[in-house]
Amino acid sequence: MDTRRTDMRDGRPFQGKDRRPFVSKKPVRYFDAPSDAVGHTVKESHVYTRKKKAFDSTADFVAFDDDTTTTVQRKQKHIDRRKPQDEPEVDLINDVPAERNRDRRLNDVPGVPKEKLKKFNRGKALDANGLRTHFHKKLLRQREKKIQFSKRQAARTEILHAEASGFLEVEDALEDTARVTQKDLAKTVDIQSQAKNFDLQLNDFGPYGFQYTRNGRYLMLFGKQGHVATMDWITKKLMCEFHVQESIACGQWLHQETMMALGQKQWVNIYDSKGVELHCIKKLFQVLTMDFLPYHFLLATGSERGYLSWLDISVGQMVSQFNTKNGRLAVMKKNPSNAVMHLGHSNGTVSLWSPNVPEPLVKFLSHHTAVRALDIDASGRYMATTGNDRRVKIWDLRKYQTVQELDVFQSPVSMDFSQTALLAIGMDKNVQVYKDVGLTQAPQLYMQHYVKNGLRHVEFCPYEDVLGCGFSEGFSSLLIPGSGEAHFDAIETNPFQSKRQRQEMEVHSLLEKIPSELIGLDPSQIGQIHQPSLQETLEQKARTLFVNVPKVEFTPKYKALGGSAGWTKRKETVREEKKRQQIKQAIAERKKLIETMADEDEEAEVPANSDRPKSVFDRFIKKKINA
Amino acid sequence: MKMTSLLAPVKLDDEMDESYGYKDHVDDEGETRQKKSDKHGRLIRSIARLDEPKLSQKKITRSEPGKIIDDQALSTGGLRPVSVGALLRKSDSSASDAAIKRKIGAGTRSKVLAQPLRQTEARKAQRAVAYEEVSKDLKKWDPIVKSNRVAEGMSFPLDQTKLHIQTTSEYVKRYQTKTELEQQIEALVGASKSNLTKTTILTEAEKEALQAMSVQEADFRRQELAKARALLSYKEQKQKWQSKIKSKNYHRHLRRGKRKEEEKNFEELQKTNPDAALEQLERLDQKRLEERHTLKHRNMGKWARHTASRAKTDKNAREALQDQLRISRKLTEKLKSNDTDEDEEEDMDDMDEVVRAAEDTINNEAKSNPWMMARAEELDEERKGDLGDIDEAFEKLEAEEEQMDVRRRSRKESCSYMRVRAEAARKPKKTEQKQPKPLANRSRPQKKPQRHSESDDDSDWVADAEGETELVSGGEMIADTRNVTNAQTATPKGVSAPHQKNAKQSVHDTDIDPRDVIKKVDRTDARQVGIDGDGQDEDSDEEQRNLIAEAFADDNVVEEFKREKEEVAEVQKPKDIDLSLPGWGEWTGAGTSKQSLKNKRKKFTVKAPKSKARKDKFLPGVIISERHDEKIVPHQIKELPFPFTTVAQLQSTIRTPIGKTWNTEAAFDELTMPKYTTKMGAIIEPLKAKNVFKRQKRKKSEGFVEDEEISALAKSEVVQAGRNRRGKKLKSEILV
């Protein structure tokens, strides 16, 4: 083999093309071997991620608000403007750029626009400095690369989401979507959609409340005066119909269409899909409102007497039951993002409850009159409340502040957010649907509809462009284009599931049941370190390090040289030696501990005087010097 | 010869000389001759000896020239020891000697060994050596093991045959030209300039053709290009410059010109195609209607706003405004006057909007609340003094607008729907007027002059209506003094005495209690309520609203909430613990001081740790519980797991969900890729040095191998398995 040649740059022999040049006495670095990690070949210099200030796991997978993007875009525009106006023409003769482009097209994976990447921002990347071993550093860096890859992939697959929820749009300014009636709409839509627009005349036992199942396929109707019916509302196939011979205050589907709970005059009863009574829960007395937490298998109820309770329906145990001390609980909704219950009270306050804390997590004054209805949007960021003062307020639940206010001409009885964040407000005769709720611009009336009277409940059907209204003389199903989520995750909720799939899902959801202890305002708290106990252990360590060195028991075996005097002397020296060692170790550990604590402090540190305006005399304040 | 003589230096007399002498004449010339004579002499002697009696034979004697002559020990003498080798060398290589030599040679081999080590020690030594050897042997595996440990994924068995997809170019390469003719042809074809390669767009020939222009041609082309560019830039500049022209005159002319041209076109159209003309007319009418209906163009124009602000002081501006008003009135009256100046209308609209915005807020505020009616009138008068005749015009205008509104409302529409729209339309106006947004939305309370009217909902509008409060960087407020005085002097007639009192009081106290801000919230709400409170429905609506407000006036929700918040804060605040026992260390009777008691209490009180600021400190209407959720604690991590040194590091590793719900299929596979995979049914054998060090051996035979090289090679060999997956993955990425 005569392929050997000398590389003149470093004078070392170099062999072959693919072999590395020898490095005579370089330290062996096993962990820095270049790996063909994810996206190594992808050149994406133009793609970068902006670091978020704080990682919010709930908001992480949802698009940012437009504030940040607009600033970036604005900057971009600004740069564009500054470009020289008479750019030289692209010279065809000089084919270098063309060549480059061509290469990229051939070999590289196309880059992802950074706006799209931003939507899937996974939070602050790992800072590997300070990790314990090189080995772990290497492993965690590999992991980090995979995370980046997953982010890019997610952004890239966005293109596959071809279906978009379409709203009604006007062609010219004279038209208005709010003036489009259901009749008009039904004329223009396809037959399948037409079938979804229907009325049920139920004159005798109203006013009617109702609920759709989580997959939007089944409908339960319950009249105030005891009439109950469940059906597959799309095929209009009746599942069961019966009369409970009592008044019904509320009804709730449980985890599937096979079970439902009805809050009757005294107790809560559970029925199956055939209308057979399965349980009568006497612990839940005079329940006025119910909601079901599907991931926790908890049935939350609010009662006439002001008791808020969570019942685990998978084991039939009461998880917790609190007296809210705020009177009648008729207004209650769950926050879909963190499973916290939101209650509306007669004194105008709204309180947030978890089953783990016997007092409201947050309480705020939303209206000066009784709260009549509230709902939280699917992202769990916005809440709409309304009271007798006929004002609808949209709250930002991250800041507990109103973002929008809306006046309506009657006091609403029911409100519901659709999956696409349309807000339906039901008043006595009128149902109004608002668009752009929670956005920077004012909410706009999107559609409206009149029912006969005595409206009791409005609710959007999940995964369908349908709004249901239950009123005194029946039920009507309205078409609201764009209200349903166009993409459903069949593993999560499947509108078209078969019986087998349903059974399978039941088992899976039971296996994946989330314990109720994890309910809290911040759903990501489970992954967090419990700071106080960490602090405590650290402090304890620091304290124990200064405790007297434990006595060392050492007795030499033989007396050997020096007799008993030598024996004691040796004993003494060994003890001393041990002691010295321990002290040394303690000092070293303490040092390390202090370092780590300092690191944590840096993160947790919030300037104490940040709320105070800056003063000229601030320069005389002693600055903290980090050790 | 005894064996001991080998160990101890024995001097053999006769041979000694010879052995020493031997070396001397090794190189002599007459060596062979002497040897012969020696031989001969020896032979003679031996023959002679045969006859001699045995006794006469010379005995071997020991002569030991040592200083100390000892019976026991053999003297070493001062001489060098004789080696057996030397002796052997001395002797001839005859057949008889060979046996002796062999014998002696055997003797040398069987040296007397030192006493063997003890068994245990011997084993110890063996072990030590063996350990060293083995560890040296095993060390060469280190890099392999380490690289395997950090490999992202390994599939066993390791030496799987790698499948490789052959590309077309590779396939084509297999066929080589063989005959000479073929080679020649290939050389010719390859040298052609019109070959299109993969990397370039143009062939060589094409490039040349493009480049090969005559000088004149090139120059001409260059000039042409330059000209075109220059023209373009002139045009651009001109447009830019034209768009920046502020002269009204110029624009008026421009517009006039445009209009004339349009008219001309229209006339022509009327002649040629009356239907189309009619259509156009209709379209124009429609457009106008639309404008009037939607108030699309009624934004606050720059000019109108500017003039309105100047109108207070500048006479000319006031006149201009009046002019505008006149025109506007005319416009609003005559619906069909199609040929009025459009731009003028626009300007008018702008101005109109400014005025209306201010007016609306005042009037509606007044109308919304029956208690305020009287005051609104009074205020109108006041304002008249300020704005003079311009106000009259406004009023007229307003009356007209109201008529319009009534007309508009007479259409069958839901009033609330209209209201929302109107409100939406007015939103930007509000912000531009620097009207304070609902205070609940502010994270921190700010100083506001309006706060003097905290308690009475009625007197604060003055400052608001003018909208001249400004927030200066330092957080101080600069308010129009006139407004403030207005607010101070204009005590409303309709307001009851306590209300007035409140107002006065609040004017004087200047510092703000952040907790009191809640009230402001509803004040702003109240203003929003009556933004356009005309039309019958609206009126009744407002009445109803007021009715409700009145009905609920007694249950002071705000006050209650405030109290509750204070209570909660008090309960959740950590408190000092007083551990002092009554009576202990106390003296009673006359002359005892209370100071000592105090001191004692102080001494035995455990101070509560300084509590952090409450989370809801700056949120007046919110109580956020500081109580810790105890039930989550067992589920949380209490200590930092091993490789991490900061909390942030740990949390960044668990920040990404790995489930399919949040990841694409490819990413999910990647994130949950098992560290080791095995092929079903395949035997997993231990690593074979033969395979791993294959190349290394070859290198060794080549004669230059270094440690680094070995490790690198070995690593690459092993990691190969892991890389197979990478290739697959990358492809999937491309596919997606």
Write the SSE topology.
The complex is a heterodimer of chains A (627) and B (736).
Chain A: E1 5-6, E2 13-14, H1 66-82, H2 96-107, H3 114-119, H4 134-157, H5 182-188, H6 191-195, E3 198-201, E4 208-212, E5 218-223, E6 227-232, E7 237-243, E8 248-253, E9 259-264, E10 267-272, E11 277-285, E12 287-293, E13 298-303, E14 307-312, E15 317-323, E16 331-334, E17 341-344, E18 349-353, E19 362-365, E20 371-376, E21 382-387, E22 391-396, E23 401-407, E24 414-417, E25 423-426, E26 430-435, E27 444-450, E28 457-460, E29 466-471, E30 474-479, H7 499-511, H8 531-544, H9 563-604
Antiparallel strand pairs in A: 1-2, 3-30, 4-5, 5-6, 6-7, 8-9, 9-10, 10-11, 12-13, 13-14, 14-15, 16-17, 17-18, 18-19, 20-21, 21-22, 22-23, 24-25, 25-26, 26-27, 28-29, 29-30
Chain B: H1 4-7, H2 13-24, H3 31-51, H4 84-90, H5 95-109, H6 119-139, H7 142-150, E1 154-156, H8 168-173, H9 180-191, H10 204-211, H11 215-244, H12 248-272, H13 274-294, H14 302-310, H15 315-333, H16 342-368, H17 373-387, H18 389-410, H19 415-432, H20 461-466, E2 470-471, E3 477-478, H21 481-489, H22 497-508, H23 517-529, H24 536-551, H25 557-572, E4 577-578, H26 594-603, E5 605-606, E6 622-624, H27 647-653, H28 665-671, E7 676-678, H29 689-692, H30 694-702, H31 707-735
Parallel strand pairs in B: 1-7
Antiparallel strand pairs in B: 2-3, 4-5
Tell me about this structure.
The complex is a heterodimer of chains A (627) and B (736). Chain A is α+β, with helices and mostly antiparallel strands and 627 residues long. Chain A has 9 helices and 30 strands. The longest helix of chain B is centred in the first third of the chain and has 30 residues. Chain B is mostly helical and 736 residues long. Chain B has 4 domains: 106 residues, no CATH class; 144 residues, no CATH class; 260 residues, no CATH class; 60 residues, no CATH class. In chain B, a hairpin with a 5-residue loop joins strand 2 and strand 3. In chain B, helix 15 packs across helix 16 and helix 16 runs antiparallel to helix 17. Classes of the chains: A alpha+beta (627), B mainly alpha (736). Chains A and B meet through helix 2, helix 4, strand 19, strand 23 and strand 27 of A and helix 7, helix 10, helix 11, helix 13 and helix 19 of B. Strand 19 of chain A pairs antiparallel with strand 6 of chain B, so a sheet runs across the interface.
